Amino acid sequence: MAPRGDRVINEQLDAFVERLGQLGYTVHRDGDGVERTGKSGATHRFDMIATRDDGFMAYTIAIDIAVADDGNKLGLGSVFGFDDKCYDCGIRDKVALAFPELDEVAERFARNQRIRVFDAKTLERFLSSPPPASMPAGVSLTPWHSKTDALRDIATAGYNIERNAKLKGRSGADYTFDALATYDDGFMTHRLAIDEVPGPNVTLSRVSVFDAKAYDAGILEKILLTAGDLTPEAKQFADLQRIRVVPLPSDGTEEGSEDETSSMAKRETEHTTAPEAELPAGPELQTAVEQILGHTPRAERVIRNRPDMAVLNLIPESMARRFKAMPLAIVDGALQVAMANPSDIFALEALGLQSRMRIEPVAATEREVLDAVDMNYRGAFGDIQEHLSRIPMRGAEMDEQALIEAAEDTPVASALRLIVDEAAKARASDIHLEPQEDRLRVRYRVDGTLQEVMSLPLKIHLPLTSRVKILSDMNIADHLRPQDGQFSTDTKGREIDIRVATVPTVHGEATVMRLLDKSLGLIDLPHLGFSKVALAQYENMLKVAFGMILVSGPTGSGKTTTLYASINQMDRTSQKIITIEDPVEYRFPNIIQIQVNPKAGLTFATGLRSILRLDPDTILVGEIRDGETARIAVQSALTG
Q1: pLDDT confidence of 294, banded at 50, 70, 90?
Q2: What contacts 606, CB < 8 A, 6 or more positions away?
Q3: 205: pLDDT strictly greater than 90
Q4: Judgement on whether residues 495 and 532 belong to the same structural domain of the protein
Q5: Using only C-alpha atoms, what is the Rg of the chain?
Q6: For position 538, which CATH number holds?
Q7: Which of 517, 537, 560 marks a domain boundary?
Q8: CB 604 within 8 A of CB 568
């Protein structure tokens, strides 16, 4: 906001508000700013909000006022924060009043993000232009019977109508709209893309093609005229993309409409490959990304490798969250970025402006990107450090009661929960707590590879280890012998079993926690990453009545996942399937599963001998730990 002592700027602002009133806008203005609550739940303040309703389209314009203290040009920060607030609040029309003016980078960002900028000179020209003699009449919301009715009423509201409008998109593609309506009052230029879609059924593909070409052509307001019924998916998409769908009577076809319908269908076919403005979230997004790129997204593994801090510093966290983009690495002079929508032209340009580098997008699911942002921008890890800073200093040696008290401290419990939560987000298979001479090293094993995620002060080692032991029902006073245990926890609605093992080292007890996420369920074989040829060969192997399939690999690489996916593929009704495991990580219906129990004399070898007398068709052995188990397994595979 302009300083209250700046009389010239304040006079200009008063004249600006008056002129907007003459143009038919209602201006909301408050000394402390106009509050709006965003999708994130955050409350934002805008210097002004202007609204205008012409009868069939309602506009909300956010207005930001930025003044340079030193009289120099304003930088990117002056418009980026404003644009971010508008995005969170769902406000698409944006105006920035910049005194004296924006620098080149900020100006380019504003242009790409469709922010109308008035600097000191352009604002003076706007205010000195003659006011309108009269305002267009509002449109009566009577039902439209044809496209001609719609265009006539829109023209009455003051819009200039161009039929069969041809536009070139940002991608270079040429588009044709049935009509383009433009209203320019000197303050804002409003453009409406108008298409008529024939019935009887209007599918998602038809609506998304219209939306995609409007997005690429830079048109925010869209009107779809149709005498047909939208499918549920098409209606949901139209609501999400703010496409106004206007129903026409089925008998309201105009002369020549058949030719127009044929032409529209032809244009629709021509532009089915246009980049889409928005993509649905979740599995649908994954499929859509694959269709756009022509191959399976390849950020699944790359995204889990923590980038250097120098790479993270190129893209601020707020921008990464807004564009669902995670910077990964600098490759051949380009910044490689994992994106939920790699075809988002404006996001690519904004990221390029911010980083001052060429952007190489890599496709990924929205969940993968946001989880990576959570993990790598260290918001949660900062919370962990905050919790740990509140732990009182204690001596290196503590008796059992002192250990219990330290372990029950709220900061210790909160820190452990956050460590587990972040591991679950990263889809880590193991958490390693490793005491060193001067610190406690915390590492996650992701896709079989250990990654150091944080370094904690050594004072946390004993309380944190004791907390794990208490949860796992282990002896917290015994630091000299290896121990095993387990506990369960719930992290953001996901039930996770945690197997714990501790072992004494020269610097204290090291702890490893194995995470078993029950909420992930089973993965089908086609989703394990096999090539088509390898998948067909493997499925044929599963159908053979004899033999052995040996699955090997490092810890956390997916051995058990592969075995379970194989079992899930088999016919459990006509075959007898028995497993012997340690532990049983997932319970199947209609098969027999045996848990190894060495204390009761039930090992893999003894269990396997017993299984052979139960007339099995298929045996799953969770682990071949010794020569005896290997010999029995091979013999049973050979003899059938």
Answers
A1: very low
A2: none
A3: no
A4: no
A5: 32
A6: 3.40.50.300
A7: 517
A8: no
Q: Is the pTM of this model over 0.70?
A: no
Q: State percent of the chain over pLDDT 70.
A: 82
Give the DSSP letter of residue 602: B
Q: Report yes or no: 431 and 417 within 8 Å, Cβ to Cβ.
A: no
Place of tokens 């980026």: 80
Same domain, 619 and 635: yes
Residue 264 lies in a domain: no
544 within a domain of the structure (yes/no): yes
Through-space distance between the first and last CA atoms of the chain, rounded to whole angstroms: 82
> CB-based contacts of 43: which residues, under 8 Å, 6+ apart?
35, 36, 37
Q: Which residue has tokens 């490959």?
A: 273
Q: For the chain, how long is the longest CA-to-CA vector? A: 98
Q: Are residues 500 and 417 in the same domain?
A: yes
pLDDT at 400: 56
Two tokens at 150? Answer: 């719609």
With a CB cutoff of 8 Å and minimum separation 6, the contacts of 582 are 595, 596, 604, 622, 623
455 and 538 Cβ atoms separated by less than 8 Å: no
Cis peptide, bond prior to residue 200, ω within 30 of zero: yes
- Tell me the pLDDT tens digit for each residue of 297-348: 445 444 556 677 788 888 888 788 888 899 988 888 889 999 888 877 778 8
237 and 330 together in one domain: no
Residue at a domain's end among 247, 278, 296: 247
Token readout for 233 is: 């998916």
19 Cβ contact partners less than 8 Å away, ≥ 6 residues apart: 126, 127, 131, 187
Cβ neighbours around 481 below 10 Å, total: 10
Give the CATH number for residue 98: 3.40.1350.10
Q: Which of 161-175, 275-289, 369-383 has the lowest mean pLDDT?
A: 275-289
Q: Based on the fold, state whether residues 402 and 506 are members of the same structural domain.
A: yes
Amino acid in the structure at residue 452? E
Instruction: Let me know whether 472 and 499 are in one domain.
Output: yes
Residue 303 has a pLDDT of 53
Are 8 and 116 found together in one domain? yes
Kindly provide the residue ranges of all beta strands, DSSP E only, lying in 290-439, ordered along the sequence.
Answer: 325-331, 334-339, 358-363, 430-435
Domain boundaries, position 200: 147-247
Q: Which of 480, 482, 442, 483 is nearest to 464 (CA)?
A: 442
Contact call for residues 28 and 50 (beta carbons, < 8 A): yes
Q: What is the pLDDT of residues 94-108, one digit of tens each?
A: 999 999 899 888 888
Q: Is position 280 within any domain?
A: no
**Does 277 map to a domain?**
no
Indicate if the pLDDT at residue 21 is higher than 80: yes
Cα dist from 101 to 47, 130, 354, whole Å: 18, 24, 19
Sequence-separated contacts (24+) of 341-344 with Cβ below 8 Å: 341/276, 341/278, 341/279, 341/285, 341/289, 342/289, 342/292, 342/293, 343/275, 343/276, 343/292, 344/275, 344/277
What is the count of structural domains for the chain? 5
Mean pLDDT along residues 69-85:
83
